[in-house]
Specification:
alpha+beta, single chain, 280 residues, 25% strand, globular
Amino acid sequence: MKNDEIRAFFESDDYCRPDESEAISKEEEYVCAMYQIQGQRDNQEDALGIFHSGEGILAAVCDGMGGLNGGEKASRTALEILKEGILHKGSQEPLRFLMNEAQKIDRIVSGLLDQNGKRLNAGTTMVAAWIERRQMSFITVGDSRIYLMRGKRLIQLTEDQNYGMLLKRKLQSEEINRAEFQRESAMAEALVNYIGIGGLQMIGCNSGGPLCLMPGDKILLCSDGLYKSMTPERIAEHLIDCTAGSVERTLIRMVDEAEKNALRRRKKQDNTSVILVMEL
């Protein structure tokens, strides 16, 4: 996590680290749900899943990209490999497991072939979170996102790995000036990292150990179909109103609103996938 706001949150009084012995010994209690729409796209290139393992869960969202059915194949392949990997996790720490899986999935997706035996040249984003005993480890590749809702505060835990991220870093290091930043910003949403790029060099993750969760925390994983059609303020309002008995309904309402927002702006709603986990 390189965003200053994220670091500030986990160093603030709002981020209370529970007693370590309690976090390790207490059985996990949570509710979770997932929801997905195709939107106005010809194909569903998103893939998502919640996989239970021992006392915890692995939640993941992948947003595929590529011609014809390439994106669909890339995202589904990534999810299937991640699911299978749980069976062989063994004693690996969750973050190390997720990092290793991302590297393996990148190699496999970059080598996918089409029906004519040629490289598919497809890829996918991926966010994945391992949640167990009130602790969370996560990774991100691309621009799908993970949010944490604590009380009435919404924090984006991931950084979009796009050209805009590179521009911001260059501006901060004074490699470019404000005028150059503005001139290049038209391409800000172009991805600079994804699963399938081959030789994956950048994997965003939680740093400094697992993130400690508290009762009432809500973890939202989503593809860009959600946040490009809905402001963070509206996402927060939906999550504030969410209760343990309305997790699935909250996702449906949120995605429905995002789709209506896109239609009002006369834009095609993208594939949209969301997962919500609420600590009890």
